[in-house]
């Protein structure tokens, strides 16, 4: 028994000592901190790139005297696609003279014929086929008949091909805005522009500004040309007898059988009319009296109540100053500053603002 007990004692002690000894289960590699993926660390804040610097701008506008004097420049599209319409339009223009009753007006006509040997390049066309009359006024005998004949452009659609060599006939791209810029700059047209009269441009078109040479003109070109020529002493208002943007039925009617398609929405003319406080009328509505009446009514009170800035102002930066001072408030939408009422004649309106 003693031997057995001794054996059991030794076996028990061996188990206890074995349990206390170091056991190596094999080492498991642990990644260093620098080698761990950076899931938890915040990305350092990078400095914001500097934004555009605001630019200060000051623009001046002079209120004209309230009078009824108006010079009218008509820019007519005489291309082949207008063939079926100009005779009707000429007849409708007979209504223009009666609508202008009470207005001291002059009128001249140019066309979209540009950049060819027999072109107008913005110069006024003859209003009759028997003399060199280029400017019409209320005192002219037979003014209604003269305007009818002039706006019908019979020779442009004569079966004789020589008719297309007549200066008013358009044989290239329609460029109404370019034609009006050239007309404003033309020294030979200066008798049309009286020093104390405002200017209205009336576009008669079935297409928009189009030029394949890459020098397409914009409404800003017309405004800049007017400001350069006349400063702020006159008011420019544009009107259009056009295919109004979005009038799909009129566009389809005007396209007709041409593959060009020969007609288009007049986006640029509509924009110019809007920017200058004018209006447009559908060329598909052959009753033109409403647009004639509007031109006349606008001429009878030609003081401005809104101005269009050259740049988009930063919100809240616009300041309007009037000399002499007047109790007139204003609002701003886009580039247009609208006054709550028309400033008195000869008021100098200064608009200060910042823009990017």
Keywords:
single chain; 356 residues; alpha/beta; Rossmann fold; 2 domains; 5-stranded parallel sheet; 3-stranded antiparallel sheet; 9 helices; 11 strands; 26% helix; globular
Protein architecture, described:
The structure is a single chain. It contains nine helices and eleven strands. By secondary structure, it is α/β, with parallel strands linked by helices. It has two domains: 55 residues, no CATH class; 236 residues, Rossmann fold. The strands form three sheets. A five-stranded parallel beta sheet has the order 3-2-4-5-6, with helices on both faces. It has a three-stranded antiparallel beta sheet with strand order 1-11-8, with no helix packed on it. It has a three-stranded antiparallel beta sheet with strand order 7-10-9, with no helix packed on it. Helix 2 runs antiparallel to helix 4, helix 5 runs parallel beside helix 6 and helix 6 packs across helix 8. The chain is globular. The relative contact order is 0.16.
CATH architecture of the largest domain, by name, is 3-Layer(aba) Sandwich
Major beta sheet summary = 5 strands, parallel
What structural category characterises the helix and strand content?
A: alpha/beta
Question: What's the N-to-C terminus distance?
Answer: 108 Å
Structure annotation, total helices = 9
Order of helices and strands: HEEHHEHHEHEHHEHEEEEE
What Rg, in angstroms, do the CA atoms define? 38 Å
Classified by CATH, the class of the largest domain is Alpha Beta
User: How many structural domains are formed by the residues?
Assistant: 2
| Overall pLDDT | 84
> Helicity level, as a percent range?
25-40%
List the strand order in the largest sheet.
3-2-4-5-6
Oligomerization state of this entry? Answer: single chain
Parts with pLDDT < 50 across at least 5 consecutive residues: 15-36
């Amino acid at each position: 028994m003693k031997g057995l007990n001794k054996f059991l004692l030794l076996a028990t002690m061996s188990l206890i000592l074995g349990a206390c000894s170091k056991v190596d289960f094999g080492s498991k590699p642990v990644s260093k901190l620098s080698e761990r993926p950076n899931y938890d660390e915040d990305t350092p804040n990078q400095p914001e790139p500097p934004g555009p610097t605001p630019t200060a701008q000051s623009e001046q506008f002079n209120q004209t005297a309230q009078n009824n004097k108006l010079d009218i420049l008509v820019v007519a599209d005489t291309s082949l696609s207008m063939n079926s319409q100009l005779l009707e339009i000429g007849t409708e223009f007979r209504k223009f003279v009666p609508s202008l009753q009470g207005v001291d007006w002059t009128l001249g006509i140019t066309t979209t014929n540009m950049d060819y040997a027999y072109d107008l390049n913005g110069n006024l066309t003859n209003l009759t086929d028997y003399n060199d009359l280029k400017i019409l006024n209320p005192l002219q005998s037979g003014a209604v008949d003269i305007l009818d004949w002039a706006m019908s452009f019979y020779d442009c659609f004569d079966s004789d091909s020589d008719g297309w060599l007549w200066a008013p006939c358009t044989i290239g791209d329609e460029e109404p805005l370019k034609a009006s810029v050239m007309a404003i700059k033309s020294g030979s047209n200066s008798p049309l522009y009286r020093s104390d009269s405002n200017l209205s441009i009336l576009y008669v078109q079935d297409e928009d500004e189009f030029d394949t040479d890459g020098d397409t003109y914009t409404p800003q070109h017309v405004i800049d040309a007017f400001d350069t020529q006349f400063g702020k002493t006159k008011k420019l208002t544009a009107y259009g007898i056009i295919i109004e943007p979005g009038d799909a039925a009129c566009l389809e009617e005007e396209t007709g059988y041409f593959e060009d398609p020969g007609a288009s929405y007049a986006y640029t003319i509509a924009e110019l009319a809007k920017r200058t406080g004018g209006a447009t009328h559908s060329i598909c509505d052959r009753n033109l009296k409403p647009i004639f009446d509007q031109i006349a009514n606008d001429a009878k009170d030609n003081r401005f109540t809104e101005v269009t800035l050259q740049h988009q102002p930063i919100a809240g930066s616009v300041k309007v100053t009037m000399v002499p001072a007047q109790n007139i408030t204003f609002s701003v939408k886009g580039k247009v500053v609208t006054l709550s009422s028309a400033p008195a004649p000869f008021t100098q309106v200064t608009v200060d603002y910042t823009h990017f």
